[in-house]
Design the sequence.
């Protein structure tokens, strides 16, 4: 995925990472200042902040099915198992999911909220890098809503009022085409080995794509840096470039399948998600979470304040944060935010859980202030020192 702490790009979801200390979001206007901008939306549903405002789940289902449509945006079907998530939701409820811009970015999502406000095609729900979710909240673009399983979303992984809440995440990993590479690397230090000449690629440019940005931060942690200092990560990739190992080609499934990017630094769930597809093509794809640079991140869910289908938007959130929805993300190799509680309760799918790439140790997650500072450093240095 490419976003900040997370982001997206074509086929592998892109997102614009901050080039300055604050996000610059489009401010296209339109529509009234009401809670919902689409035709025929239910004002009661638009103001609902929890299931109790509907009475019970059956009442919410009835209201959502009466709307009949849910508009999602920037959800590739092969991203964290969203294809199955959408089809299961449609089969479970009498609701048609309209998916716009599947290869769009977090920035595209927020642009659509503002530019399509008041239109029936406007996004109902958003899946964003957390920095974008915070910015959307600051711009008053989000409707607060707390799902039934709210208490099982860890503190620090949600806005206390429910404007946004983390959904799934993972760790930066090294994907390796073991069919053409004799010895797959398992650490950042390995990536300086001459045997990997011209093979080390990122999922995008770290000034624009969060997966790449997070790869640089992971490299920093492996080279004496910290969540307060991303600089060593840039220094490391300068070394990778200087020894001739850096591959400027941006990772996509196509570049991996063609052999252009035999080593791919990306989220573990994206790398792991390619394993079966590549195996069908005769490629052995191995995935390792580096032991010397453990960096994790989440994406966030939110409901548009101007959702044209506010009941369907809230039912979608209830579905995503149910055991069923969380296990669907798990089936995509992503780690759902409720996973610790589900493991304790025995509701996490054990087979899917065992398929996750092994991780040694625990990762700390950057604060908003650390993220903003790191993005500014990358914006100032990356293109001049690495891409230039």
Sequence:
């Amino acid at each position: 995925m490419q976003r900040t702490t997370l982001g997206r790009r074509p086929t592998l979801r892109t997102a614009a990472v901050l080039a300055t200390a604050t996000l610059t979001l489009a401010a296209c206007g339109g529509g009234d200042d009401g809670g919902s901008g689409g035709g025929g939306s239910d004002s009661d549903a638009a103001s609902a902040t929890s299931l109790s405002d509907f009475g019970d789940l059956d009442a919410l289902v009835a209201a959502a099915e009466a709307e009949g449509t849910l508009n999602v945006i920037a959800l590739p079907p092969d991203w964290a198992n969203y294809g199955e998530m959408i089809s299961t939701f449609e089969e479970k409820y009498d609701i048609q999911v309209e998916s716009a811009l599947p290869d769009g970015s977090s920035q595209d999502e927020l642009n659509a909220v503002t530019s399509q406000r008041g239109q029936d095609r406007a996004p109902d729900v958003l899946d964003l890098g957390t920095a974008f979710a915070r910015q959307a909240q600051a711009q008053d673009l989000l409707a607060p809503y707390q799902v039934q399983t709210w208490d099982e979303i860890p503190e620090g992984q949600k806005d206390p009022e429910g404007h946004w809440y983390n959904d799934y995440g993972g760790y930066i990993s090294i994907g390796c085409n073991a069919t053409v590479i004799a010895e797959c690397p398992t650490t950042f230090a390995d990536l300086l080995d001459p045997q990997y000449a011209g093979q080390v690629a990122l999922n995008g440019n770290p000034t624009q794509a969060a997966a790449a940005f997070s790869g640089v931060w992971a490299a920093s942690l492996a080279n004496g840096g910290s969540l307060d200092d991303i600089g060593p990560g840039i220094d490391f990739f300068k070394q990778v470039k200087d020894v001739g190992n850096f591959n400027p080609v941006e990772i996509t499934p196509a570049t991996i399948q063609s052999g252009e990017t035999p080593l791919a630094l990306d989220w573990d769930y994206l790398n792991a998600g390619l394993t079966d597809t590549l195996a069908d093509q005769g490629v052995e794809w191995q995935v390792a979470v580096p032991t010397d640079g453990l960096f994790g991140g989440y994406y966030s869910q939110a409901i548009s304040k101007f959702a044209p289908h506010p009941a369907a938007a809230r039912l979608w959130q209830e579905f995503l944060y149910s055991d069923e929805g969380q296990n669907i993300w798990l089936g995509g190799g992503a780690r759902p935010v409720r996973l610790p509680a589900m493991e304790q309760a025995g509701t996490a799918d054990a087979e899917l859980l065992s398929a996750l790439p092994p991780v040694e140790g625990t990762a700390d997650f950057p604060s908003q202030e650390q993220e903003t500072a790191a993005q500014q450093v990358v914006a100032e240095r990356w293109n001049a020192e690495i891409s230039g």
In short: Residues 1-41 have pLDDT under 50 and may be disordered. Strands lie at 69-73, 96-100, 125-129, 142-143, 165-177, 200-202, 263-267, 285-288, 296-304, 335-336. DSSP finds 15 helices and ten strands in the chain.
